[in-house]
Design brief:
heterodimer; A: alpha/beta; six-stranded mixed beta sheet; 5 helices; 12 strands; B: 458 residues; UDP-N-acetylmuramoyl-L-alanine:D-glutamate ligase; Protein-Tyrosine Phosphatase, Chain A; 17 strands; 21% strand; globular
């Protein structure tokens, strides 16, 4: 078995160790004897998403947002929407998560149109929401408890077309108000969780792998791994929060 | 009235310092903070007669300051420095209080001030430094500062408070170099003229891939490390300026130092640098530029590069274990990658201790360990005898090292520094210690209790 993992915009969306998610996915596949091929698709790249079995998008700095938007509007936006509707699994973090929504409105009212793949939007706030946090995934998203580090000033509101990824147990999540964290639509998982998200949350990492393998091969029996180190880090942070 | 306030503030600061020392605390920060509350202009008043050199930037501040000190000492100048990493306005003010008499008259002619990037805007306007060095800008503690471009605007704002200062800038850092455009200051450029061909695989993480002016992707003629090198924007033409003080050749890089050729304002010299690794070549050439901008002759400054030692966790050596130990502070991905690259050059077997804390001085977000290329460790094979992870976030480090490809049986977790140091005393192999800032303070104390060394405020 083999998975093609596409890392979209690794050149500009690469803040806060989010690339660690790619390392985690590939290691956990290879430890099980499953091949993983990672393709980087930076800005301007001709790489198509149609051959991808999994797409990852990380978070970025505001400075690079303009560069990104230009590239998105050159056709990448249509391609991402089609890939999502086609059921390709996505993990998107922070800026990459917001980007899938319909727009971002800055604190002083400037509106920036995003790609509208997911029914959600984000509004900037004055106060940054920073810190370790934890949330419990919905049963549809595996139900595991995820620990991470959030760092965002945007408040995301979900529309009726998407489900939250989970319920905040400690910290802010989507907006610090409605108790929701992230979004789940088809096989897209969006979250504010840096940390990075996957290394310390092996159950969630395996859910993503299982989703991708099931879509490609119709079965997703994942051999169990020795996750003692991962779970020790997970449980330690969980206990602190 | 102001004079009276100043005197009271000085007396208050000195009293608090005395109290701190009696209580066996460093007392580097609190006295200045209290004194500034009483007299907010205190730093301006105390520094007006002192000729100051300030160093800011993400990495290399402390090492640069130590090199500069060595040159000042060699020259016989009377100076003081904020030696213990107390680099916010409070810590800097404490140093000025301790180096003035009770009426605020300075006891020394010169000051070497290392200044936090975010604190610079409060400090420079009062300090009015003669020379400012900006070493580089990398991602560092983003949970505290926001993004690297915000750090850049902090420094720009700081420079508006010191328009007379000679500005020594790292030409190879596209972020740092962009400071020159809209500041009144006279700029002296330094850098390294040669590096690896840009065709080599780009590092997974670069802090500045796109032009700071027009956002087009840079083209590189060479790269030294991280995003440093010969960048050029194909769209607006923003490019690396020619360096006035430049390393034209790296003759040799050894485990204990480097030999380079430096072109100093047109004259070429072979220079010995008494610390290993590429990032210390930058620290050396930056310090040389700054010291000569202060008026010290190049020969004296170059002699200092071959002699200085910096201690305090920066390549600091200890007689720990059978083969000795070196402590290398790491604070962010760029610095960490440089240390990992240095470890790759070590041919003898060694043990590595990594300590990760997440206190406010370290940055509370530890995700940066995934931006650093720990995969280097996975490629070292049996030369890397063992990795011991420690610190508040040892569990996170353990996962990182595991995913970097280090075999599980070579990784251990030990949180207790006493036990750790006792274990290391028995080490047959060379020991390298890689702590983050607050972990360094504690680990260093534990090492010193066993094998000796200086207290942190000395």
């Amino acid at each position: 078995m083999q998975l093609n993992i596409c890392h979209l915009y690794p050149d500009v969306l690469n803040l806060y160790g989010d690339g660690g998610n790619i390392i985690t996915l590939t290691r956990r596949l290879r430890w099980r004897g499953i091949e993983a091929t990672v393709t980087r698709a930076p800005i301007g790249s001709p790489v198509s998403l149609t051959g991808a079995d999994f797409v990852f998008i990380g978070g970025g700095q505001d400075f690079e947002q303009q560069v990104l938007l230009e590239d998105l509007h050159r056709g990448r936006d249509r391609e991402i929407r089609a890939a999502i509707e086609d059921g390709i699994p996505f993990l998107t973090i922070c800026g990459g998560y917001q980007m899938l929504g319909s727009y971002y409105e800055t604190y002083d009212g400037q509106r920036c149109d995003f790609i509208g793949a997911l029914d959600l939007c984000t509004v900037g706030s004055k106060k940054r929401m920073i810190g370790n946090y934890k949330f419990q995934c919905t049963p549809e998203a595996g139900g595991s408890i995820v620990v991470g580090f959030e760092n965002h000033s945007g408040k995301t509101r979900l529309g009726s077309g998407v489900q939250p990824l989970g319920k905040v147990l400690a910290g802010y999540g989507n907006n610090g108000e409605d108790g929701t964290e992230g979004a789940h639509y088809k096989n897209v998982f969006g979250s504010y969780s840096h940390g990075p998200m996957l290394p310390k949350n092996p159950a969630f990492a395996d859910l993503l792998l299982a989703t991708a393998l099931e879509r490609k091969y119709g079965n997703a029996e994942l051999q169990p791994l020795d996750d003692r180190a991962e779970l020790a880090a997970h449980d330690e942070m969980c206990a602190k929060l | 009235m102001l004079k009276l306030r100043m005197i009271l503030a000085i007396l208050l600061g000195r009293a608090m310092r005395l109290l701190s020392r009696l209580l066996h605390r460093g007392g580097t920060d609190l006295p200045g903070r209290a004194a500034l509350k009483l007299c907010p202009e205190l730093l301006r008043l105390l520094s007006s007669e002192v000729k100051s050199l300030a160093i800011t930037g993400t990495n290399g501040k402390t090492t640069s300051a130590r090199i500069i000190e060595e040159a000042f000492r060699e020259k016989g100048w009377s100076y003081f420095a904020n030696r213990s990493g107390a680099n916010l306005i409070s810590g800097i003010t404490t140093e000025f209080i301790m180096n003035a008499d009770w009426r605020g008259r300075p006891r020394k002619d010169y000051a070497i001030i290392e200044c936090d990037e975010a604190a610079a805007k409060k400090v420079f306007g009062q300090l009015k430094p003669r020379v400012v060095v900006v070493t580089n800008l990398f991602r560092d503690q983003l949970d505290r500062y926001g993004e690297v471009t915000h750090t850049l605007s902090n420094i720009r704002e700081a420079m508006h408070g010191a328009p007379e200062a000679l500005l020594c800038l790292n030409a190879d850092c596209s972020l740092t170099a962009s400071l020159a455009g809209d500041l009144p200051n006279k700029v002296i450029w330094y850098g390294v003229n040669k590096g690896a061909a840009p065709s080599r695989p780009q590092p997974a993480i670069s802090d500045a891939t796109h032009c700071i002016r027009c956002k087009t992707e840079y083209e590189y003629s060479y790269i030294t490390y991280g995003h440093l090198g010969g960048y050029r924007c194909p769209h607006c033409g923003y490019a690396r300026p020619k360096a006035d003080v430049a390393v034209t050749d790296v003759v040799e890089q050894r485990a204990d130092g480097s030999t380079v050729v430096i072109d100093w304002h047109g004259s070429r010299r072979v220079v010995e640098i008494n610390l290993p690794a590429m990032y210390n070549i930058y620290n050396a050439v930056g310090a040389l530029t700054a010291v000569t901008a202060m008026g010290i002759d190049a020969d004296t400054a170059i002699a200092a590069l071959g002699r200085f030692s910096c201690g305090f966790g920066r390549m600091e050596q200890f007689k720990l274990g059978k083969k000795g130990a070196r402590m290398m502070l790491v604070k962010n991905p760029a610095g960490c990658n440089q240390v990992l690259e240095f470890l790759e050059t070590i041919s003898d077997p060694f043990a590595l201790v990594i300590c990760l804390n997440d206190r406010s001085a370290d940055g509370t977000d530890v995700s940066w360990i995934w931006d650093a290329e720990f995969e280097t460790l996975g490629r070292l094979g049996s030369r890397l005898r063992r990795v011991i992870v420690s610190g508040d976030r040892a569990a996170d480090l353990r996962v990182r090292v595991k995913y970097a490809g280090v075999p599980d049986e070579r990784i251990t977790l030990q949180r207790d520094y006493e036990t750790l140091v006792r274990e290391l005393e028995q080490a047959e192999e060379t020991v390298f210690l890689m702590p983050t800032y607050t972990a360094m303070l504690e680990l260093r104390q534990a090492v010193i209790r066993h094998v000796g060394g200086a207290e942190f405020w000395e």
